[in-house]
Amino acid sequence: MATNKNINRIKVVLVEKKKTNKWLVDQIGKDQATVSKWCTNTTQPTLETLVETARILEVDIRELLVPTDNQKIMMTIL
């Protein structure tokens, strides 16, 4: 059963950093179509690629992930 849930925030972080998909393609060395699929949450990058993307964007890897409901609850408590 496929769901269309947004799992990553790559596109959001790119916008926040004023960067484009094309810029990320050039930095990470992946195919334009692949990066586009990550940005639309059609497919997800590997953990290794997510780590590399966070490094390139100079963000904590957690900023690239959409928190689960439990994580949101914990964040409001803390």
Please describe the structure with a list of short key phrases separated by commas or semicolons:
single chain; 0% strand; mainly alpha; 78 residues
Secondary structure elements and their pairing?
Layout lengths: L9 H7 L4 H8 L3 H8 L7 H11 L11 H9 L1
Helix-strand topology string? HHHHH
Coarse shape? globular
Based on DSSP secondary structure assignment, what is the total number of beta strands? 0
Distance between the termini: 34 Å
Domain HTH cro/C1-type: 26-64
Pfam family, one: HTH_26
Protein name: Helix-turn-helix transcriptional regulator
GO molecular function: DNA binding
Structural commentary:
Residues 26-64 form the HTH cro/C1-type domain. By secondary structure, this protein is mainly alpha-helical. It is 55% helix and 0% strand. The chain contains 5 helices and no strands. It has helices at 10-16, 21-28, 32-39, 47-57, 69-77. Helix 2 crosses helix 3 (32-39). The chain starts with 9 loop residues before the first helix and ends with a helix. The model has no long low-confidence stretch (mean pLDDT 87).
Task: Summarize this entry quickly.
It comes from Bacteroides muris (ex Fokt et al. 2023). The protein has 78 residues and is mainly alpha-helical.
